[in-house]
């Protein structure tokens, strides 16, 4: 099950991004998963709870947007969303196409969290003003 290693990488990436943006507790992780990505969404959800234990993401929700397969139809000369991943053929005219525009994604695109507030205990007012550029 490669979803466990994917989830561990996702947790590392989300934790680093949260730290970079000054987020403390993370409430939700938003992910786009393409139908052709090879990732089983339910396995990913199961692994997420295991992989987030003891991290800033513990208790966060994993919100997954499934991305359908979109191909470019050469006969219609426009993108078409497929009702199912196979066959790779335009649902309007039936022309087969191997030009996949969307549907392979595995993308962390948003985090919901709380900003960390740092106490400035032991500092005087003038030092705080200096830090703000006043």
UniProtKB/TrEMBL annotation:
One example of a Gene Ontology biological process annotation: protein maturation
Annotated InterPro entries: Hydgase_Ni_incorp_HypA/HybF_CS (IPR020538), HypA/HybF (IPR000688)
Gene Ontology molecular function, alphabetical: nickel cation binding; zinc ion binding
Residues binding Zn(2+): 73, 76, 90, 93
Family matches, as Gene3D superfamilies: 3.30.2320.80
Binding positions (Ni(2+)): 2
One Pfam family it belongs to: HypA
Entry keywords, A to Z: Metal-binding, Nickel, Zinc
Domain of life assignment: Bacteria
PANTHER family linked to this entry: HYDROGENASE MATURATION FACTOR HYPA
Function, as annotated: Involved in the maturation of [NiFe] hydrogenases. Required for nickel insertion into the metal center of the hydrogenase.
Protein family: Belongs to the HypA/HybF family.
Protein name in the entry: Hydrogenase maturation factor HypA
């Amino acid at each position: 099950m490669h979803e466990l290693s994917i989830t561990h990488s996702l947790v590392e990436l989300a934790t680093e991004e949260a730290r970079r943006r000054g987020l403390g507790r993370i409430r939700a992780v938003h992910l786009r998963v393409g139908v052709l990505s090879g990732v089983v969404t339910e396995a990913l959800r199961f692994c997420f709870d295991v992989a987030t234990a003891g991290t800033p993401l513990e208790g966060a929700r994993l919100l997954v947007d499934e991305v359908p397969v979109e191909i470019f139809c050469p006969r219609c000369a426009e993108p078409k969303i497929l009702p199912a991943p196979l066959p790779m053929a335009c649902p309007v005219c039936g022309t087969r196409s191997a030009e996949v525009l969307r549907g392979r994604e595995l993308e962390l695109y948003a985090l919901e969290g709380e900003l960390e507030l740092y106490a400035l205990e032991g500092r005087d007012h003038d030092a705080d003003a200096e830090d703000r550029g006043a």
